[in-house]
Amino acid sequence: MSRRQKTVNRAHARTRARGERANATLRTWKILAKLRCCPRRATAIVQAILVLHHVEANRYAG
Q1: Domain count, the chain
Q2: Between the CA atoms of 25, 31, 37 and 38, what dihedral angle is there, to the nearest 10 degrees?
Q3: pLDDT value for 9
Q4: Which single residue of 6, 11, 29, 62 has CA 20 to 30 Å from 56?
């Protein structure tokens, strides 16, 4: 495997890991099961929730 492909794979893994953690957080709170609105509005709500979650988590991390 080339050095360029390894770099691309690492970048993809980092991006995917962030998405997986976000999905795990939302599943834990059962937000997606209760959300009943259009996909565009749901996306904005989910983004806001995750931003607040990360701000709060970073506040206590150090």
Answers
A1: 1
A2: 20
A3: 94
A4: 11
Question: Chain-centre distance of CA 45, in angstroms?
Answer: 13
**Could you list the residue range(s) of the whole structural domain that residue 33 is in?**
3-61
CA angle 44/48/50 to nearest 5° reads: 120
Written as one string, the DSSP assignment of 2-18 is -HHHHHHHHHHHHHHHH
Single pTM value for the model = 0.55
Chain length of the chain: 62
> Would you write out the chain's pLDDT as a tens digit for each of its 62 residues?
899 999 999 999 988 988 888 888 888 878 778 888 888 898 898 888 888 888 887 777 76
Question: Where do we find the tokens 């834990």?
Answer: 28
